[in-house]
Write a structure and sequence with these properties.
single chain; 5-stranded parallel sheet; 25 helices; 24 strands; about 50% helix
Length: about 850
């Protein structure tokens, strides 16, 4: 039954305040910090007592007790032993201002009125006594199962989270994993005899790093709760952006890399800031972005830890801001326009200006770059004139000639008819550039009428008396219409050229994805969806009844992609101008599918090639390694059989020993080869049964010749049995010991230790040799691999490869670790045959 949470009784007494020093693991310095806090308060004149402190015989921590009043403990007898506990009644009777109470999660020895120490602390707080205490993250009740999954150790001493959350102050005592392991190795946490087991067990780098992250996240959540409470109490309704999310808008232009790096720096300056890149694909499909450039920028975004997104929208500013708000972004990074000053005269407002106007509470950064203002934005490939220009063109065709007429009327008599006609011609050409040939025709008609009425004699009437003036007006109209048509044609050709360029870049990018090969098909399908602005795109099996043509429907497009696949796109209705490009996309997808099939076929052949390489290496190695023991044994036996030499008894013993050693080497070599072949063929027979490391180790050492360095063991008799095949386990241990002895200096021992870790048991073979570089940790398990050996006298290089294979066959693992202080530790982990023993000594 879970212990009852006791609420503090505040009737008539001010409840005490609780301060908690929270640690990620034992040994980070919680007790030290608690005692230091007590000394600091005592120096200020506060009445402080040490109600309970567990220093674990750590000298630096015990020094902090000096000058503090230490209350006597109470002693209780339980199951034949005597244990000391905090004297709760004594602390209440002393009634200090502050009580220092260590190990909040401790379970009290039966005999007191509370089963848990945190319940004692609740009584002290209810009595008006401030309490400073300590607890580790693994003791919080809500994290109990998470910690067990990480460390394999169940925590039977827990504290309800609400007790810790009610604390007036929570201070995190933090220490990096490597620093904590160094403290452990130096003997600053546990006694020397417990150090190796602790480093191999609970104090692994991965365990400590995960626990540290849990502690940081838990405290961060507690800080957020405090902030929300403060905002609620003070009626603060505005958003406080405590975590930055930066969105960078990419167009596929050359400025993209500059924007990404600038946005990354903005995100990095904010603790925990996120970077999101977004490209807005216009709903008409192929836009003015280079897919190749976007792919390169996407790689850059992901390389700096950001994420890439693509959205579809007609109005780019609105699409950008909708995405930013959906992602709860706080900042938006845009590049300044690449449009030239002439383009700005035609259309003053750009995407940046509209985005700033609509941004609201999102900060917008306009970043300058080397391409700013250096080129007019090219027309969108395959698109007609925008709606704004289609409206502005006819309006300009009417307004601009009228405006020019007003100006020329003020200077009547200054210019002749030829100059006035040329000015009207320039106006018509400008209207043609803005609105196309239809707007130019309207402008030429308006200009000719105004020119006739105001500037061709007789003025102020639509009559022409001079034949030359009539000819001039006719030529004016002809030239205006011709020039407008040519301008419109050139713009159409420019748009077609831009469209062809975009299509070529897109298809080139897709071809590059096919050549790269890795996951090309999913990438190309996603590129197709983004390029055409569709909601979804997928490859589906082909039933054989589909036609070899593009099928179009309302929001659904199907196009063949090879003999057995159909590309299906859902979303908008595609115009006919994009069907040719879509067919090219589908052809690339078909090529990608063929490439994937060829890659899969090549992968199926690779194991055969690997087996051939294995056999070649085996033959090359066996050619020497078999010959050496055979030659030695044969020479010794031949000498013994010889009748020409009369050997002494000592000489005969030496020859027999040589023959025995040679045959033993040959036997081990053949056994390794046979076991390796069985492993690779999947024909290894296992007989798993409860096996004790302490029973197998002597047998493994007996199979070895006299080692050049001493081999010692510790802790093997205390650990439980493992599920293993005894002969195979013997082979694994023998190979590990041989490897450790070979690389150990003569003045150092090889240590073999055992420890339990949850439902598994570990055997550690520790040497003080040169150790391993990180890049060699996998290579040592490759057959026929001898790191640092240039000769074949040490065997085929099968020992570690065979050991890992046998360990995995028995359901275990074999991993290398660095030995603290230098050297290599091989860790053999196997399943425990009996119930695990709960580790002790965790403070």
């Amino acid at each position: 039954m879970a212990p009852k949470v006791v609420a503090a009784d505040t009737s008539g007494v001010r409840p005490g305040k609780l301060k908690v020093f929270l640690g990620a693991a034992p040994g980070v310095g919680k007790t030290y910090r608690m005692l230091d806090e007590g000394r600091r308060r005592a120096r200020r004149g506060t009445d402080v007592v040490v109600a309970y402190a567990e220093c674990h015989a750590r000298p630096h921590t015990e020094e902090k007790l000096e000058g503090l009043e230490i209350l006597p403990r109470t002693h209780r007898t339980y199951r034949g032993g005597t244990f000391s506990e905090m004297d709760l009644d004594g602390v209440l009777a002393r009634h200090p201002e502050v009580a220092l109470v260590d190990e909040m999660a401790h379970t009290n020895v039966p005999g007191g009125r509370n089963g848990k120490r945190w319940q004692d602390i609740e009584e002290l707080l209810a009595a008006g006594i401030d309490v400073v205490t300590t607890v580790n993250i693994q003791h919080l009740e809500s994290l109990n199962d998470v910690v067990q999954k990480i460390t394999g150790v169940p925590q039977r001493e827990t504290v309800p989270d609400e007790i810790v959350r009610r604390a007036h102050q929570i201070e995190l005592v933090d220490m990096p994993a490597e620093a904590l392991r160094r403290r452990m190795a130096h003997g600053n946490i546990y006694q020397p005899e417990k150090v190796d087991a602790a480093l191999a067990h609970y104090f692994r780098v991965g365990n400590l790093t995960a626990l540290r992250e849990l502690a940081l996240l838990w405290v961060a959540g507690r800080v957020d709760e405090t902030l929300q409470k403060y905002r609620s109490e003070h009626g603060i309704g505005t958003v406080w952006e405590t975590r930055e999310r930066v969105v960078v808008a990419l167009t596929g232009g050359p400025e993209g890399e500059t924007l990404i790096r600038r946005a990354e720096r903005i995100a990095d300056r904010s603790s925990g800031g996120d970077l999101l890149a977004v490209h807005v694909a216009r709903s008409d499909g192929l836009a003015d972005a280079s897919p190749a450039a976007l792919a390169k920028q996407r790689e850059l975004v992901e390389s700096v830890g950001g994420s890439y997104h693509s959205v579809v929208g007609d109005h780019v500013p609105t699409a950008l801001l909708d995405f930013a708000r959906a992602e709860n972004a706080t900042q938006l990074v845009l590049g300044t326009s690449r449009r030239s000053w002439l383009s700005r005269l035609v259309a003053p407002r750009g995407i940046g200006e509209d985005t700033v106007e609509l941004s609201g509470d999102i900060d917008v950064h306009m970043v300058t770059h080397e391409r700013a203002g250096r080129g007019r934005r090219m027309p969108v490939p395959g698109r007609e004139l925008p709606h704004s220009r289609r409206v502005a063109g006819p309006v300009a065709g009417l307004v601009l000639p009228l405006a020019l007429t007003v100006v020329l009327a003020q200077t009547r008599g200054t210019l002749n008819l030829t100059s006035e006609a040329l000015l009207f011609l320039v106006t018509v050409i400008g209207v043609a550039c803005l609105g196309g040939v239809v707007s130019a025709l309207l402008a030429s008609l308006t200009a000719s009428l105004l020119l006739n009425y105001y500037f061709i004699p007789p003025s102020d009437q639509f009559t022409i008396t001079e034949p030359n003036n009539a000819l001039a007006l006719a030529v004016f109209v002809l030239v205006a219409v011709t020039v407008a048509a040519l301008v419109d044609r050139s713009l159409r050709l420019a748009r077609r050229a831009a469209s062809a360029t975009a299509e070529a870049e897109t298809l080139s990018s897709m071809a590059g994805n096919i050549l790269r090969g890795d996951q090309a098909v999913p990438i190309l399908v996603e590129r197709t969806r983004e390029a055409f602005g569709m909601e979804s795109a997928e490859l589906v099996p082909r039933s054989g009844q589909e036609k070899e043509t593009v099928e179009r429907g309302e929001g659904l497009v199907k196009v063949p992609a090879g003999p057995d696949r159909i590309l299906v796109l859902r979303g908008r209705r595609l115009p006919s101008s994009e069907h040719r490009v879509l067919t090219a996309f589908a052809a690339h997808l078909a090529a990608a599918l063929d490439h994937a099939r060829l890659t899969e076929a090549a992968a199926e052949v690779e194991p055969v090639k690997a087996a051939d390489r294995m056999r070649t290496a085996l033959l090359a190695a066996v050619s020497h390694d078999l010959r050496t023991p055979l030659a030695g044994g044969r020479a010794a036996i031949s000498s013994l059989r010889s009748t020409d030499v009369d050997f002494s008894a000592a000489e005969r013993d030496e020859l027999l020993a040589t023959a025995d050693e040679s045959l033993a080497k040959l036997n081990r070599l053949v056994d390794n080869l046979l076991d390796m072949s069985r492993l690779q063929a999947g024909a290894l027979t296992l007989h798993l049964q409860p096996t004790a490391f302490a029973d197998v180790l002597p047998l493994a050492l007996d199979t070895l010749s006299t080692p050049s360095v001493p081999v010692e063991s510790q802790g093997l008799a205390e650990i439980c049995d493992v599920l293993a095949d005894p002969p195979l386990l013997e082979r694994v241990i023998a190979n590990l010991v041989v490897n450790a002895v070979r690389h150990s200096p003569a003045d150092h021992r090889v240590l073999i230790s055992g420890s339990a870790l949850g439902s598994r048991v570990e055997l550690r073979v520790i040497d003080r040799g040169p150790g391993l570089r990180p890049e060699d940790r996998d290579r040592i398990f490759v057959p026929f691999q001898r790191l640092g050996d240039n000769d074949n006298t040490s065997g085929l290089g099968l020992g570690l490869a065979l050991s890992r294979g046998l360990a995995e066959a028995m359901g275990g693992t074999l991993t290398p670790e660095d030995t603290p202080g230098g050297g290599l530790t091989m860790v053999l982990s196997l399943r425990a045959a009996a119930a695990e023993e709960e580790p002790v000594g965790l403070a």
